[in-house]
Amino acid sequence: MPPRPAAPHVMTAAEWGLLFALAAVWAGSFIFVEVALTELPPMSIVLARVGIAALALTPVILLWPNARNGALPWRDFAIMSVLNNIIPFALIFWGQTQITASLAAILNATTPVFTVLLAHWLTADERLTANRLAGVVIGVGGVAVMIGPAALDGLDVHLAGQVAVLAAAVSYALAGIFGRRLRQVPAMSAAWGQVTMSTLMFLPVVLLVDRPWRLDLPGVETWVALIGLGTVSTALAYGLYFRLLATAGATNLLLVTLLIPPGAVTLGVLVLGEAVAAREVAGMAVIGLSLLVIDGRLLRRLSKHK
Question: Phi and psi at residue 211, in whole multiples of 5°?
């Protein structure tokens, strides 16, 4: 008789806290990128993002003994760079030349759906459950509510752009599942290895496409945005990413894509003084409901009291 599959991991309060923290630092990347795009092309921003992150993490790797335990799996880092950075970044950037950023955000929020489905077939311990599937579908609906019906304009056209962003979501899902191989690698080492390989692989692309020596030297605000993007939204973010991946698993980790839109709205209010629309509040409430459904504990408690 085949062994019974392991039960899906139920996240602890600490893991939920790390997930919300990861969503916050990734949500901040939208503000940093918005500033940087005023003076730099997208691919140069990507290279600066991973390059600054690699530089920021290098002292950590050199000074923290636990980060240097054992030989580093550079082949796995290269594969993670392709799945988690190069493919999705390229697809999303190109996709956004065909569709709106809002529609791209909704399509990118399908990442947990693909993760739940792929993890069911590719792993033994992250099996598909009804509450997980229902929760991520509700969450995608919450993102759609937040962004509003105008984001769906053009849904029946520019199919290639929509497929590109969906393919990026699949790539992110595969990265989360493949990254389970790095669970024994210290989180900061895994983050450093991935962004270092991404830098080396992105560099020739940027040299060919953007020819950075022809660009004007960016101003102070752009440099501040790039440093924030590289240190906080990439170096710190991937440290949290690999920490969560090791303990909570891919399907729980990639719920972060549902939390990034609410995080971006919150930062917009706190940092940019933007107003909050009623649909954004409603969408965040739906996303909150989706997380309760995925977690399952509150629903089980309510069912016991019936």
Answer: 45, 65
pLDDT by position in tens, the chain (length 306): 444 455 566 778 898 899 999 988 988 887 888 788 889 888 898 899 999 999 999 998 888 766 666 677 899 999 999 999 989 888 887 887 777 666 777 778 888 888 888 888 888 777 777 777 788 888 888 887 877 776 666 556 677 888 888 899 999 999 999 998 888 888 889 999 999 999 999 999 999 988 988 988 899 999 999 999 999 999 999 999 999 998 888 888 888 888 888 887 777 777 767 677 788 788 888 888 888 877 766 556 655 655
Number of structural domains found in the chain? 1
7, part of any domain: no
Q: What is the distance between the alpha carbons of residues 306 and 295, in angstroms, rounded to a whole number? A: 19
Spatial contact of 90 and 83, defined as CB atoms under 8 Å apart? no
What is the DSSP secondary structure assignment for residue 82, as one 8-state letter? Answer: I
User: What is the distance between the alpha carbons of residues 87 and 29, in angstroms, rounded to a whole number?
Assistant: 18
Domain extent, residue 140, equals: 13-304
Q: Has residue 1 been placed in a domain?
A: no
In sign, the C-alpha dihedral spanning 139, 81, 162, 114 is negative
Hey, how many other C-beta atoms are within 10 angstroms of the C-beta on 13? 7
Tell me which residue of 241, 198, 235 sits closest to 56, measured CA to CA. 235
pTM: 0.82
Could you tell me the CA-to-CA distances from 251 to 97, 179, 288 in Å, in that order?
Answer: 29, 12, 17
Residue 166 lies in a domain: yes
